[in-house]
Amino acid sequence: MNRLYILLVVLITSCSNELEKSLIIDKIPDDPVLTISIKEFENVNFQTLEFISESVDFDFSSIENYSSKGEVLISFHYTSKNKLDHFLIQDFPDTLSNKFVDSIKYGNHNIYIDKNSNYVTNKNNFLFLSKNKLLIENVIRNSTYGSNLEFEKFKNLYHNKSKNISLIVKENFNGLMFMDIPQSVKRFSNLMQYEFDVLNDEINVLGFAKSDEKRKIQFLNNLKKSSTDFFDIIPENFSKLKRISFEYNEVKENLNAVIQDVSIINYEIDSIFQNVSEVGELVIENDTLFLLNFDDSNEINSIESIKGSQFYRGQEIRELSKNTLKIDLLSFHEFEKFKYFTKFENLVVFGKNENELENVILNYKNNLTLSKQNQFEKFRKKIPSKSVSFTLHKNDEDLGNTYIYSTEEVGNNLAYFSLFTSPSENKEIINKLELVSKTKHSQNIVVKPTLVKNHRTNDLNIIFQDLDNELFLINLDGTKIWSKKFESRVISDIYQIDMYKNGRLQFVFLTSEYLYIIDVKGNIVKKTANKENTSKKYLSVFDYDKNKNYRLVVQEGKTLSMYDSKLSVVKGYKATRSKKTIANKMDHIRILNKDFLIQYYEDKTFTIYDRRGRERIKLPKELKYKSTVFKHNNKLIFLSEENEIIRIDISGEISYQPQNENIIGLVSNQDMLTIHTDNKIIVNQNELDIPYGNYTTPRIYQNYISTLNLDTKELYLFSENKKIERFPIFSSNFYDFSTREKQTVLVVVGDQDELLYYTVD
């Protein structure tokens, strides 16, 4: 009996001690809006802590002066309007005296002040720290979260954590952001717990909560997971895609259960949604579009309010006289404002105007969609193939994560959120095409748009002329800087010079009547009348020694006029008249400090002059050109009418290389020789296949070779050994290349009144 009594006393004492032992969460001041819980601080993943710091905008450095170990908890409280103060709880360390600069008395407790103006005290072997003295006082007098009816739900979340670090967030906190993406707890519950796996740039976030019936997440109740077809039409330049699996009867039931509107007895959905399997909201720059996936591609044709239609790139865009497809899902309450749509088989895209849909069609026709993007396809293998609801964000690649994928689910009143992103696996530089902007002009563009430097903004602009002879300078986004009407069409390339040698650039070009120099504001700086009334005139601009001593060469008929940058005639150039009619603009080639000026004639012969107009190399009379003359390996090179590749060295020695295949075009620079045959582009012996067709002469820009199929209106782009990914693209006639911030850019005339601006790498 005595042994039994002793054992009972031990058990009672043990239970009593256990009941008296306090949990760390019992010491939280009332009404925390955020709580960071760390089970073992000595095993903390500091990358995770840094991620949480960025997600809630809190700097942990203010609490690093205390040697934390064991369990640590940081809660955040609104102590005044919009002011958030933190409260730290941890095991009481042994040495603190050297950290304090002052102290005050509160009841029987000392409250210390450290060198960082934190208030610190201890109670029941816990250390408490905060910038707000009131929070410390509340805990001292036991005014804690435990007396709040909400505490039991909070405690259940706390006990269900599985990671070393967790974050519990209350619905009235609006500052939660994961990777700059705002998060809403309110749609899930009044409290939600998040756990994290963070390793370098690979990030996983899992959130869970008990959700009541009136939360917006209940829209998804009992919906089945399914795969999406939207990736096949989503342009690469999107910023966000939200998608929900759709089941007509379940969605209707959920909407009627969640929507709290006494004016609506029964929420109805248009019957057209009965054959919809998924809905989506797509954001591209500042445009929002809505997506529907139909079981039957003809279902959309049953809409009776179709007002009219038009075609873009061969695809129909229809206009509605009214839209009755409103639905309170995602942002679909705005759906009724969208009056235009286009179809991609079962997929239907709605937009507010035709231009938004044209952008989607353009990217689709150019194969610039997510499903055709290798980097996204690698990411896609890491995310679930089926989901109820997901949001896909395209992130800034400089952050290390191109795509951010999050999902939402609900079932049995439990709500789940997950976020996933991983670093880009492909670190090598890949040539790729991306559409940056598309702009429509009021008239057809008749002069090649040229990418030019704006010295005032240090950015690129586009200059072009339309059918009304109006010259335009626009930004890359299509915004007009100025326009100026001229008496006739620009008939030359548009060049830029620095006539005052001060970094302020001017434009030089030729019309039938005048040679013009205008400034970046569109003002005429100088002009001079052309000498002859001939239909063919040519302009070349040379800077022999790269010292801005420009030579402006105007050729018309059988005459040549050479001007300096002030439009004064340059004296000393001898070859101002020829016996033959000039047929092309003069070329300047420099080889080993020698200048070669090539003048072409209508009879397919040419003359090689030096910079004073003296014949530099005597050519055989029977030698005729098919291509113009280029530089290659310190020799002059061109294609003759006899289908021979002709090389001329600086001493005048000529070599002939007959070709077995019919050569259509030849272009070259010092290191790259490009030959166009019937169905090949041959670059330094590398053969690249192209379809048979009527092509423009290839052009070289840096390490790229381009050519345009005039029959199919397809622009091809190659490097030395391969076709650039995503080419060909549509171009009706003109295009131009330049470089912006070490990136190759391309401007293309799509339809004849349309400018498209791309980045290539």
Structural class: mainly beta
- The mean pLDDT is 89
- Approximate strand percentage: 35-45%
The coarse silhouette is elongated
Main pleated sheet: 20 strands, antiparallel
Count of DSSP H/I helices: 7
Radius of gyration: 36 Å
What does the oligomeric state look like here? single chain
- How many beta strands in the DSSP annotation? 53
Stretches where pLDDT is under 50 for at least 5 consecutive residues are 1-20
Tell me roughly what share of residues is in helical segments. Answer: 10-25%
Query: How far from one another are the termini?
Result: 89 Å
Provide a descriptive summary of the structure in words.
This protein is mainly β. Among the domains are: 21-210, no CATH class; 216-421, no CATH class. Helices cover 10% and strands 40% of the residues. Strand 28 and strand 29 (506-510) form a beta hairpin. The radius of gyration is 36 Å and the shape is elongated. It starts with a helix and ends with a strand.
Give a brief rundown of this model.
The chain is mainly β and 761 residues long. It is 10% helix and 40% strand.
Provide the fold topology.
Elements lengths: L1 H19 L13 E5 L7 H11 L15 E9 L2 E9 L8 E7 L2 E6 L4 E5 L2 E5 L2 H8 L10 H9 L5 E6 L6 E2 L2 E2 L8 E9 L2 E9 L29 E6 L2 H11 L17 E9 L2 E8 L11 E7 L2 E6 L19 E5 L2 E5 L2 H12 L8 H7 L8 E6 L8 E9 L2 E8 L12 E7 L4 E10 L4 E8 L3 E6 L4 E6 L9 E3 L8 E5 L3 E6 L4 E6 L7 E6 L8 E6 L2 E5 L23 E5 L2 E7 L5 E4 L5 E3 L12 E3 L2 E5 L4 E5 L5 E5 L4 E6 L4 E5 L2 E4 L2 E4 L9 E3 L2 E6 L4 E5 L10 E2 L4 E6 L2 E7 L4 E6 L2
Antiparallel strand pairs: 1-2, 1-8, 2-3, 3-7, 4-5, 5-6, 6-7, 8-11, 9-10, 11-12, 12-22, 13-14, 13-20, 14-15, 15-19, 16-17, 17-18, 18-19, 20-21, 21-22, 23-53, 24-25, 25-26, 26-27, 28-29, 29-30, 30-31, 32-33, 33-34, 35-36, 36-37, 37-38, 39-40, 40-41, 41-42, 43-44, 44-45, 45-46, 47-48, 48-49, ...
